[in-house]
Design goal:
The chain contains 9 helices and 4 strands, in the order αααααααββαββα. It is mainly alpha-helical. This is PKHH3 protein.
Length: 214
Amino acid sequence: APGPRSYTTLRDEAVKLFNSLQQLESERDPVPLMQGVLQTCLDLPPLVDEIYCQLVKQTTEQPAPGGQGDLHYWQLLTCMSCTFLPSPPVLRFLRFHLDRTENRFPASEMAKYACFIREALGKTKGRECVPSLEEILVLMQRQEMICTVHCPGAPACSVAISSHTTAEEVAQELVSRLGLSQSPNLFALYEQSRRREQPVGSATLLADVLTRFE
């Protein structure tokens, strides 16, 4: 379909993604390549299962388990788990793969990614945007992002958020921090740009808002 990116057939795009994954193994800066793969999956949802299966294959029986190339695949799998849910059959297969990895390589980096991915899959409901470059960087480290919120009459507040944190959760935390829990007023987050200012929906993921800023 016409759009900002031109695509060919699903089969051809799946081959292109496979080639991208092969390149990922030796990429010095994998973040832009990861974001490109995620964007293709967002634009072409039928490829989500395909990429999950390819990543499971690439993280199975690696010649150098825990090496840089192997960890790049686990890092992309982490970003996928915070962005898309696979279909039920692929999800069952993925969870088996995560359990197998933790059992075979306990206390390894791969096992830590597997644990993080399992927890993320329990929270992911789908994203409007792919993770920003900053979000991908922190997901690669299994960490949270720091979001700065400017409050009227108060200094800016820094809030740690994950890929699953909603605007309502951040607003509630700020209300508590500012001692406004007993206030009869309603509070919300606003998104401001040069052209407009608008409230952020309570169920909106803050990570999506940050991607739009990027």
